[in-house]
UniProtKB/TrEMBL annotation:
Domain of life: Bacteria
InterPro entries named in the record: AAA+_ATPase, ABC_transporter-like_ATP-bd, ABC_transporter-like_CS, ABC_transporter_ATP-binding, P-loop_NTPase
Official protein name in the record: ABC transporter ATP-binding protein
Keywords: ATP-binding, Nucleotide-binding, Transport
KW Nucleotide-binding (keyword) present: yes
Length: 309
């Protein structure tokens, strides 16, 4: 069955006051993947996640969660997803265990089928099970939010910036847990500002900017783009015919005497590229190189994204 975990079709959101936060957003989150949703501040990531969580009303478009249309089957759609919001919000007078039990009650899960203790253990909160939530550290509260999102054992877990302002140790624990859930078949969607983190964890990455999707590719393909390095080469005379060679990924004429050649730095080096040009009888008078990485790919994508109205 190839049905995606989440299908977003032409989703639009304009807030009261006129801010267009999502502009015709469409993408699928394949089942069983760790899917990264990346974008600069204000790109629209939280808006998208809050629509899926049923916290924000969409203005237009369609969202399907685990095969359930958000408008037609909101209850089933909601049961199929657990969302860890960016903001930490709790009733401070309940203990972590009570918080989880109340949440399970809201989903109508019978007492015998509840997994509160398991979740507390998974999130390293067993010794805080009966402490008041207001006495927990920020990191503990964040872990409790993850546990709360999983009380109904949804097939999809969505985490909105789970590691923002979180220390290294907690981040490691959180990702261990996410990887464990993923190994059990849970589809994970996460937003993060940390490109390196996304690169390590995600099977696929969508980049959103000014409410539009500017990239949506398997992580290794995005990284492959980051493997593309460019040399700009100027020759002593006008170039008659643009040369071809297996080690060139792409070749473009900058002016009559200058070529920009991209190559895969994991396959060849600048020496190979220049060697191929001189072997063609061309005389090089100037060379400069550019070395993009994943961050550059990200920045180039977001800088070419269009400004929303
Ligand atoms: N309730 C609201 N009313 C009006 N505008 C809003 C509201 N919530 C968000 N916005 C605006 O919508 C745009 C998208 O915001 P959103 O929070 O979805 O972005 P984000 O990508 O999650 O950013 P961040 O990484 O900073 O959380 C921003 O310009 C924001 O100011």
């Amino acid at each position: 069955m190839d049905e995606p975990a989440i299908r977003i079709e032409s989703l639009c959101k304009t807030y009261a006051g006129g801010k267009r936060a999502l502009n015709d957003v469409s993408f699928d989150v394949p089942r069983g993947q760790i899917f990264g949703l990346l974008g600069p501040n204000g790109a629209g990531k939280s808006t998208l996640i809050n629509i899926l969580a049923g916290l924000v009303m969409k203005s237009d478009g369609k969202a399907t969660i685990w095969g359930f249309d958000l408008d037609e089957h909101p209850r089933n759609a909601k049961r199929s997803i657990g969302v860890v919001p960016q903001e930490i919000i709790f009733d401070p007078f309940f203990t972590p265990r009570e918080t989880l039990e109340i949440q399970a009650g809201l989903y109508g899960i019978p007492k015998s089928e509840r997994i509160s203790d398991e979740l507390l253990a998974a999130m390293h909160l067993t010794d805080k099970a009966h402490a008041y939530s207001r006495t927990l550290s920020g990191g503990m509260k964040r872990r409790l939010l993850v546990a709360k999102a999983m009380v109904h054992s949804p097939p999809i877990l969505v985490l909105d910036e789970p590691t923002a302002g979180v220390d290294v140790e907690l981040r490691r624990q959180l990702w261990d847990y996410v990887r464990r859930l993923h190994a059990q078949g849970v589809t994970i969607v996460l937003t993060t500002h940390y490109l390196e983190e996304a690169e390590q964890l995600c099977d696929r990455i969508a980049i959103i900017h000014h409410g539009r999707v500017v990239a949506n590719e398997p992580t290794r393909e995005l990284i492959a783009k980051a493997q593309e390095k460019a040399v700009v080469v100027t020759f002593d005379r006008d170039i008659g015919a643009v040369p071809t060679n297996a080690c060139f990924e792409n070749i473009a004429l900058v002016d009559e005497r200058t070529l920009e050649i991209t190559y895969r730095k994991d396959k060849v080096n600048a020496g190979d590229v220049l060697g191929a040009l001189t072997a063609d009888g061309l005389h090089i008078v100037d060379v400069s190189t550019r070395d993009p990485d994943l961050e550059d790919v990200f920045l180039s994508l977001v800088s070419s994204g269009q400004e929303a109205a």
